[in-house]
Structures are given as structure tokens and as C-alpha cells.
Amino acid sequence: MPLDPWGPILGVLFEDGSSDYILQVLKFIGLGTDFQLTPEESYSHKTRKRAYENRLGSIYAALDDVGKRRVAQNLARKLAQTNDHTARRLNEALNGVGWTVQDGRLMPQSPIEQEAFFSKGSDHDAYVHIRAILKTAKADLFIIDPYMDSSIYQLLGALTPASMVVKILASTVPSLCARVDVLR
Fold first, then answer.
1. Are 93 and 125 part of one and the same domain?
2. DSSP H or E segment with residue 76
3. 78 and 158 in a common domain
4. Is 99 helix (H, G, I), strand (E, B) or coil?
5. Among 123, 132, 124, 78, which residue's Cα sits nearest to residue 101?
6. Which domain range does residue 45 map to?
7. Are residues 93 and 5 in the same domain?
8. pTM of this prediction?
9. Tell me: the pLDDT tens digits for 6-33?
10. Contacting residues for 146 by C-beta, under 8 A, at least 6 apart
11. Strand 140-144 relative to strand 99-102, pairing
């Protein structure tokens, strides 16, 4: 299981950015909470960065797992979009804890443990992500999705070799009749 990606992501943010840039990024990703600093904390960029890092650690620790994943995903995406150097540095740091950023998404390196959050209206992103995971299957594929519909057959027909064993666990069995021609 990959380790928590927050530390390396935060390390890259604080390594490459000025205190003003850090504050701007945090507001952009939705962590624009009150970052009022004491006179001692606001003495220099270095002291401001240290104060922001401590406050962020407390904010992150208070989040549930979904919130942590969402904040880490948003910050990783923003950093990866900054410039090529930052994107490379971010992936180098994340590689050490079993993560990577691919196409703007924070992803575990192991194809066995892939979890992703897709916001409402991002059906295409979800489809592309799922297709990429399914492409890595070699011999067996076990899909668990309580909301699966018959479109899964079209996707499987296009991706899986005839010799692959596919098992599907869903709350209802998707209609195969409409997709028999796809599987031929």
C-alpha cells in the first residue's frame, strides 16, 4: 500500500515557492483559511513558510480520508501544472512513497490499488481512468461496481483478450442481450 502522499507534495510546494506563492496556491485549491500571522511569524519569507507549513499540517490532520485525498489531489494537480521542473520534482518526490501524477491526477503507482475521486460531471475522466486500469490486466480481471450498466461489455470487448477471465460483481447484472454483438 502506498504511503501518504501529503508530505512529498507539501515538500515540493514549500521547496519551490515563495510565501506569497504558497498562500496563493492554497487559496486556489480551497484551503484559503485564515492564515493571519503574528509579527514574529511574518518576519521573513522563511518564517512565513514555516508558519504556513505548521498550520497546514494541523488542517490536514483534521480532515477525514476523503478530504485528505481531495486536498492532496488538488495540490498535486496545481503543482504539476506550474512548470515542467516542478512537475518532474513532484513526481520524483512522490515516487518514493508509491505515488505519481499522471494527466493531472494523483495516482498510486501500483495498478492493483487504484482509487480515484471524480467530481460530478466528469464522466469522461472516469471512463478514461477506468479504461487505463483495465488495459493493464493480463490474465484475470475482477470488477466490483454496484452501479454498473451494460456499457461495461463494450469496454471489455475492446480491451480484453479472448483468453482473459473476467468476473463482475454488481448489485444487478447488466443486460447482456444488448451487447452480444460487441463480444463476438
1. no
2. helix 65-82
3. no
4. strand
5. 78
6. 1-109
7. yes
8. 0.58
9. 889 988 988 867 878 888 888 887 776 6
10. 170, 171
11. unpaired
Q: Where are the beta strands (DSSP E) in the chain?
A: 99-102, 105-108, 140-144, 165-169
> Last residue of some domain: 56, 77, 109?
109
Which residue among 74, 109, 144 closes a domain? 109
Beta carbons within 10 angstroms of residue 57's beta carbon = 13
pLDDT, tens digit (0-9, with 9 covering 90-100), for 40-59: 888 888 888 888 888 888 88
Please state the domain count of the chain. 2
> What's the pLDDT score for residue 3?
80
Claim to verify: residue 75 and residue 166 sit in the same structural domain = no
For residue 107, give the amino acid letter.
M
Per-residue cell: 184: 463476438
CA separation for the pair 100, 74 (Å, rounded): 13
Strand, coil or helix: 129:
helix
Please state, in angstroms and rounded to a whole number, the distance separating the CA atoms of residues 25 and 3: 24
From the list 128, 117, 20, 126, the residue with the least C-alpha distance to 76 is: 117
**Can you point out the beta strands (E) in 136-178?**
140-144, 165-169
How far apart are the C-alpha atoms of 68 and 75, rounded to whole Å? Answer: 11
97 and 18 in one domain? Answer: yes
